[in-house]
Amino acid sequence: MNRVKGKVCIVTGAAVGIGEACVHRLAQEGATVALFDVLDEEGAALANALRGKGAQAHYWHVDVATEATVSDAIDGVAGRFGAVHVLVNNAGIAGVTKPTHEVTEAEWDRVQAVNVKGVFFCTKHAIAHLRRSGGGSIINLSSIYGLVGAADVPPYHASKGAVRLMSKTDAMFYAKDGIRVNSIHPGFIWTPMVERHLRDSGATDIEQARREVGLMHPLGHMGDPDDIAWGVVYLACDESRFVTGSELVIDGGYTAH
Ligand code: NAI
Fold first, then answer.
1. Residue-averaged pLDDT of the chain
2. Percent of the chain beyond pLDDT 90?
3. Distance, CA 13 to ligand 1 centroid (Å)?
4. How far apart are the CA of 55 and the centre of ligand 1, in A?
5. How far apart are CA 240 and CA 113, in angstroms?
6. How many CB atoms lie within 10 A of CB 60?
7. pLDDT, tens digit, for every residue of 39-82?
8. Integer-rounded Cα radius of gyration of the chain
9. Is residue 130 within 8 Å of 170, Cβ to Cβ?
10. Which of 11, 18, 227 to mutate to test the pocket of ligand 1 (most atoms within 8 A of CB)?
11. CA of 89 relative to ligand 1 center, distance in Å
């Protein structure tokens, strides 16, 4: 309890999946949570449910790929809650499943706009607020596919590789401000994104596909959103005060091969 008490945490892509789990665990550990997403119904309902449990929470409609919206919303968080201490850059899309030579420019650009430019915009507009707070933590959701490749979603792999190095670059820039920047590298986590990806890849028996993909991990199954959310809580709180520029791999052993 109270590992992030008093901290104002922004989570992008907060409405479902990993983002939703992050919001629950951060709130449970005492944070004030700002939910950014484009799924207004789910996001607002989640913020409402958290307030019902006594947490401070508010939902903002934010497409992370639109700079002005990002900037206004982050200013709005600081205005409403008085400060910003933690930014979880979680919003992401998988994009198309096809070989590189079949990917269109528009398909490529959309994935980079959300997964890469979204992290850039949110980081860019959070920095002044984090400095005013005397420091803070930025947590970027990369992937096992920011560390190793796979023959399935080329724009996604490129985007997650970019996020890995953006994290290290920003860790270097902002260390002097007490702002830590780290990346998290999940293996397959059972969320709406992965279910969609399996269907797009042609799976008809979704439970069987889930088991098969799970077996790619030495621990023998996919992870749950909470497996990532607890990593986010660790990087958000002061237990990780000496951790920056690092890669937190939470993947059931996938990349240990
Ligand atoms: P998800 O698709 O289940 O949820 C993503 C959330 O982001 C949704 O609420 C969606 O509405 C929101 N979102 C999408 N585009 C947005 C935009 N332009 N602006 C604001 N919000 C937007 O995805 P999941 O699985 O929860 O993934 C979260 C993050 O973790 C992503 O960055 C993903 O790449 C990463 N990740 C997920 C893995 C998995 O196996 N689920 C594995 C490795 C990384």
1. 98
2. 98
3. 6
4. 23
5. 30
6. 23
7. 999 999 999 999 999 999 999 999 999 999 999 999 999 999 99
8. 17
9. no
10. 18
11. 10
Question: Which atom of ligand 1 sits closest to the CA of residue 184?
Answer: 44
| 3-class DSSP string for 61-106 | ECCCCCHHHHHHHHHHHHHHHCCCCEEEECCCCCCCCCCHHHCCHH
pLDDT band at 247 (very low <50, low <70, confident <90, very high): very high
pLDDT bin (cut points 50, 70, 90) of residue 16 is: very high
Q: What is the pLDDT of residue 201?
A: 87
> How does DSSP classify residue 7?
-
pLDDT above 90 for 242: yes
**Among protein residues, the one whose CA lies closest to atom 18 of ligand 1:** 63
Count Cα neighbours of 72 within 13 Å in the Cβ-side half-sphere: 8
Q: Which two tokens stand for residue 86?
A: 């933690």
How far apart CA 209 and CA 51 sit, in angstroms, is 37
Residue nearest atom 17 of ligand 1, based on CA coordinates: 63
Q: Measuring CA to CA, how many Å separate 41 from each of 61, 63, 93, 164, 172?
A: 10, 15, 19, 31, 38
Say yes or no to pLDDT of 257 above 90: no
Pocket test for ligand 1, best of 10, 23, 193 (most atoms within 8 A of CB): 193
8 A C-beta contact, residue 164 and residue 146: yes
Instruction: Give the binding-site residues of ligand 1, using a 6 Å CB cut-off.
Output: 12-13, 15-19, 36-39, 62-65, 90-93, 114, 118, 141, 143, 186, 188-189, 191-194
Ligand 1 centroid from CA 5, angstroms:
25
> Whole-angstrom Cα distance, residue 15 to residue 69?
17
